[in-house]
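fyi for ur records
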Amino acid sequence: MKIFRYYIASALMIVITLMGSYAMAGHGAKGGAPKTTITGGDTINISGIILDNHKEPVDQAEITILVNGKEVDQVVTAHNGKYVSRFELEKNGLQVSTIKIEAVKTSFQTKTLEFKGSELAGKGDHYYISEDLELARVLGPAFWISTVVFILAYVLIAFELLHRTIAAMLGAALMMVISYTIGTINPEYHIFSFDSAINSIDMNVIFLLMGMMIIVGVLKHTGVFQWCAYIFYKLAKGKVFLLSVYLMIFTAVSSAFMDNVTTMLLLTGVAIEICISLSINPLHLLIPLVLASNIGGTATLIGDPPNIMIGSYAGLTFMDFVIALALVCAVCMVVLIIFSKFVWGKAYAAAKVDNVQEYILKLKEEYPITDPKLLTYGLAVLGFAVFLFLSHGYWHMEVSIAALMGAAVLLTIAILTEKVNMIELIEKDIEWPTLMFFIFLFIIVGAVESSGLLAVIADWILDLSAGDFVVACSLILWVAAIMSAFVDNIPFTATMLPIVAYLSGVIPGAENTLWWALALGACFGGNGTIIGASANVVTMGIAESRGYRISFIGFMKTAFPFMIISVLIAHAWLLIFRPQ
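which gave:
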């Protein structure tokens, strides 16, 4: 009965949301001048697209139609920049009329276009014309306010002055409040509308993360991840370096299919217990594991949040990522193994293992598969979800649909068999602060995109590269890597998406290669510092709670050199092979 109530409540929420969206769609458009119906008059149809100087569509621009200086209609452009105006004039009045189209939007110069009514093509008493307008950017008050708020939010996130979710929420809310208060009094301060804020949220990313969190949350109850650690130790036969190699490879592969944050959440506790029993510092194993998670997560669409965002924005498939990035990630994994031998080899060699066989038996007792039946169901559902990930380009289906379907099926099985407490799973295994952070971050980036900051950055990179592919690719890769090392790679990637999209369209021969430069830079760069990637923060936070703290500089001493090495490999890869 309780489950039934939950489903009914969920259905009601969906219906209420849809009704609200319908109401907004029906009543949210700006009405403009009232239209007068003239019986037997001429019907005029004017349409077109409003673009910015990057040839990108401008949404919610106000289009005013004037005939002989008198306003006859006012419409608002759609998300694709299109507008359609339809009005009536007195019979034969069009031929002696002058029609003016005026396009207005905050952060853009007002543009007008004037032409004679006689220029319209006609059929009977219906006349048609299509007119596109290009609006130039203006760095007005909305631009400067949104830029300052954006930078302040970045500072709060980067230096952890506030929790990143709160910082993002504060920035998003502040921009909208300014738009609807000061912006109402003076339109030059209007940054963006509520509708634009909602449209800027990429729900494909949100639902994909949520679905994978639920799947892993159910699998966690089977003990499969701890059991894998026991198996690897058994295979290594007490050789700690070999154990670290197995764990790094397992971490990289798991991160490629389950995302690196989730993988590290599950493996960190087990790795700490193994290190304690071997009398070595857990950080000597955790640091290479988190580096491996970021490398492995780079290889697929769903492995690292920046890739999810890039794939969703650019329309790249799961297999596109695998074909372009998997091999270079495998090369970097080999380099990481060699790097780990040089940096932590002595610590591994000094590990204390009194009786290897006895310890293996101990791990076998402590880490068994607790629910084989649920594990069977879980692996079957996960396998089906992965199949849909691999083939989603063929089905023209967003990857989030596969993740949500897998999560729904597995959660239903777990609840009906009373293996999992739904409320507990929803509260503890779904990282709500992370999902909220993404939502508010998308809004912040949508605001600075609307006000023109990203267009300014794109123009700067384009001018600096002078349209040269090699320079643009190098700039994107290294700027992404360095920035992602010191600022969480999620907000940086969100900022760069429209910029890379623009550069990919205007630089000859770029195609998808610039997207791979962004992905490699953002993901590999996250290895540079302790705050560079979400997986780093999660792993070191768990270690600190267990009494094993590492400083910002301490992490950077070992991680940053490897980050530089991996980005150099990626740079050579991109310039030599130019993956498309």
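The chain has a mean pLDDT of 85. thats all i got for now
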